[in-house]
Every structure is written in structure tokens, then in C-alpha cells.
Amino acid sequence: MNRPDLAATPSALSPSVGSFVVNIPDVPDTELEPEPLDPAQIVSGEPVVTGKVLWESPDGKQIRGIWQITPGVVTDTEANELFVVVSGRATIEIENGPALEVGPGDACVLREGDRTRWTVHETLRKAYHISM
């Protein structure tokens, strides 16, 4: 079985690659790229966001990747997203909706346009799929 190893060959996971597997917890932080937050999004703390796109559809309407945020509180307006938490914990408060407690192994669906407040208790890493 062929398994591209992201840590050894990050370029192996380009949009031209077909099927693949990545062990998300084993991807080193050094493989993740900075995704600076708009200072207006930061409510408290000094959260840092990093990530890596693993696959993007040719039309740019679907994206799959890894996303990580360090502790703090931030706001966001969500895309149509399904993600699975790999490590860490957070509370995601949806404006006019529920508060979602997420941790390792949890799958979460966010609707496009949801206005959220993320309280990140422990550095959170997730694998995600976004549809636009």
C-alpha cells in the first residue's frame, strides 16, 4: 500500500494527488503555515492559527486540510464545514444557537454564515472539509 508521508514529502499532497492518507497528529507544527488572524477577531489571549491545505478542488469550491489554533478567544463567521478534532479542546458558541464542546474524536458541522466565538482551552488541531 502506498502512503505519502506528509512529514517526509509535503509536496506529495498537492491537488493533483488522488487518494491518500495522512496521520494528522503526526504532522509536525513546522509543516503548518501561519494563517494570521485579523486583530478584530481576537477577544482575549494571543491565539496563533496555522494550517495546511491537503487538497483543493479544481474550481476552488472544496478544501480539505489541517487547522490548528493555540489557546485564546476569537470570533469568526463560518463556512460550510465538517471537521474532526484530533487534539485539544474548545467551546464554540454559535450566535443565537448552542454552545458546542469539542475535543478529540468529535465531529462537528458548522453552517455557512454562523457567527461564532471560539474559546480554545487547549491547542486545538482539526482535520476539515469546507464546501463553498
Note down, in words, how this protein is organized.
With 132 residues, the protein is mainly β. It is built from no helices and 9 strands. The chain has strands spanning 33-34, 42-44, 49-56, 62-69, 72-77, 80-94, 99-102, 107-110, 115-131. Strands 1, 2, 3, 4, 5, 6, 7, 8 and 9 form a 9-stranded antiparallel β-sheet that branches. Strand 6 and strand 7 form a beta hairpin. It is globular, with a radius of gyration of 15 Å. The N and C termini lie far apart (32 Å).
Radius of gyration (CA) equals 15 Å
Shape: globular
Number of helices: 0
Task: Describe the oligomeric state of these chains in a short phrase.
Answer: single chain
Tell me what portion of residues adopts beta-strand conformation: over 45%
Largest sheet: 9 strands, antiparallel
Termini separation comes to: 32 Å
Helix fraction bin: under 10%
Number of strands: 9
SSE order in H/E notation?
Answer: EEEEEEEEE
Determine the structural class based on helices, strands and strand pairing: mainly beta
* Residue windows where pLDDT falls under 50 for at least 5 positions: 1-13
Instruction: Look at the structure and give the mean pLDDT.
Output: 90
Note the main attributes of this structure.
132 residues; mainly beta; 9 strands; 51% strand; globular
